[in-house]
Amino acid sequence: MARALVVGASGGIGRSLVQELIKRGEHVTTLSRSVDGLDLTDEISIHDTLGRIDGPFELIIIATGALEIGAHGPEKSIFALDQSAIAAQFAINATGPALVLKHVLRHIPRDRRSVFCGFVR
After folding, report:
1. Cβ contacts of 38 within 8 Å, gap of 6 or more
2. 64 and 8 in contact (C-beta within 8 Å)?
3. 6: phi then psi, degrees, rounded to nearest 5
4. What is the DSSP secondary structure assignment for residue 120, as one 8-state letter?
5. Are 61 and 118 in contact (CB under 8 A)?
6. Which residues are registered as beta bridge partners of 4?
7. What confidence score (pLDDT) does residue 120 get?
8. How far is the C-alpha of 55 from the C-alpha of 53, rounded, in Å?
């Protein structure tokens, strides 16, 4: 039985992944903004939240992300690009998962195979 960590477990994709992993007999640890206060735009939040969990984890899934942030929806043309919207998207969908990897390394076993993956919405 492998140990899995699902970040973003309260969202639709994350919740479904947790249910499937449990059905397969995996031991699953979950993290989310709504339950654990994990804020992917705040490195201190990431560090502190990951510091409260016990590893190791053979599977780490990042199931967070946002297509729409605030009043900004998906761009339909190049003319709809907005600098602040792009920065917010990048912070949630790229920088946040990279910072999770930075701070979860201590929970990844070095003596056996492990997987770190993410989903883009």
Report:
1. 7, 31, 32, 45, 46, 49
2. yes
3. -115, 115
4. -
5. yes
6. 28, 59
7. 58
8. 7
Cis peptide before 97 (omega within 30 of 0): no
* Euclidean distance between the first and the last CA atom of the chain, given in angstroms as a whole number: 29
Confidence of residue 77 (pLDDT cuts 50, 70, 90): confident
3-state secondary structure of 94: helix
**What is the residue-wise DSSP string for 29-76?**
EEE-HHHH---TT-HHHHHHHHHTS----SEEEE----S-BTTB---S
- Dig out the tokens for 79 from the structure: 């003319």
What pLDDT, in 10s, does the model give residues 87-111? 888 888 899 999 999 999 999 999 9
**Rounded to two decimals, what is the model's pTM?**
0.88
Give 50's contacts (C-beta < 8 A, 6+ positions apart): 31, 100, 103, 104, 107
Q: Which of 77, 74, 79 is nearest to 120 (CA)?
A: 74
Could you read off the pLDDT of 22-75 as tens digits, one per residue?
Answer: 999 999 999 999 999 999 999 999 999 999 999 999 999 999 877 777 776 677
